[in-house]
Amino acid sequence: MSVTQESKKENIGRRDFLRVSAKALAGAVGGGAVFAESAAQGKDNEVGNAATSFPTEDYDWKKHRWAYGIDATRCIGCLRCVEACKTENGVAKDAHHFRTWVERYVYVEGEERARVDSHSDPQNIAASGSESEYRFDNRYKDEKVTKAFFVPKMCNQCQHPSCVQVCPVGATFRTEDGVILIDKTYCIGCEYCVQACPYGARFFDEEAGTSDKCTWCYHRITKGLQPACVEVCPVEARIFGDLNDPSSTINEFIHKNRVHVLKPETGNAPTCFYVGLDKEVS
Predict the structure, then answer these.
(1) Residue 11 lies in a domain
(2) How far is CA 111 from CA 115, 136, 147, 263, 279, in A?
(3) Which residue, 212, 257, 219, is CA-closest to 69?
(4) Stated pTM of the model
(5) Count: domains in the chain
């Protein structure tokens, strides 16, 4: 057995042990609240003592405050962002696992509510001919469409994330620069965070046995690069930057537009800001 195989086996064994422990403690103390508090504190201590900077010595996460902007009036539904995300982050290339996705909203004459579909819709999959290729079909060619637009979605990297609150082992945490990450060596695959996210931005990775989601390409932005989805967008519908930098594109986007966040009533306080949204978008 190779070192990689041994490490993988050890991690799986550890997750199985923690999964059993979490369930047992959850039954003893009511939802695992004590275990969650202890684990979260341990995570903070571990990161704080490891180094003054994270994730590398060349990056100081206390100097940045990342945010994301989406201009729904520009998005053309080309889905290059989805393809780039899957390639960059090793997400399964099927129609059921996405770190970012795009929804289509179409108003047909005589109907009060929009019809909504995404590239994972069965009709769109059939139009592409493969679950690993993404496109929107032309189902509305014979309809009288009064209004239509595309809405890219992903993890909103909330300031008060419900996913962090429910994680029983502290595997999901919020970084100093505002990004929600998952430490997969701690994740026990309970999927509490998947259920708690009000935006449907998380999914369970069956192969890894852990939860997964968008991280705004944290491995890229901490090196001064743009998220993969932002870099490939041909119409600049996706905007990313540092709120601590007054001259950043995200600050310009927020200051020049009337921005909105999704589901503000949840109290999660997203740091993903939209323009051009219809009231039906949630």
Answers:
(1) yes
(2) 9, 21, 11, 24, 15
(3) 257
(4) 0.81
(5) 1
pLDDT(74) > 70: yes
Got the DSSP string for 96-164? S--SEEEEEEEEETT-SS-EEEETTSHHHHHHHTSTTS-----TTTTS-EEEEEEEEEE----SS-HHH
* Interval 247-258 mean pLDDT: 97
Q: Is 97 within a domain?
A: no
Note whether 166 and 196 are within 8 A (CB): yes
Which residues contact residue 269 at a Cβ distance below 8 angstroms, ignoring those fewer than 6 apart? 158, 159, 160, 261
Is 202 part of a structural domain of the chain? yes
In a domain, 135, yes or no: no
Q: What is the pLDDT of residue 25?
A: 42
Q: What is the mean pLDDT of residues 165-184?
A: 97
pLDDT of residue 95: 87
User: How high does pLDDT run on average in the chain?
Assistant: 86
Tell me the residue length of the chain: 282
The domain spanning residue 199 has which CATH number?
Answer: 3.30.70.20
Residue burial 108-136, b: 16+ Cβ < 10 Å; e: rest? eeeeeebeebbbbbeebbeebeeeeebeb
Residue with tokens 């079909």: 137
Quick check: 54 and 61 in contact, CB under 8 A?
yes
Q: Would you give the distance in Å from CA 18 to the centre of its chain?
A: 25
Residue-range definition of the domain harbouring residue 39: 3-63+157-213
CA–CA gap between residue 232 and residue 205 (Å, rounded) = 25
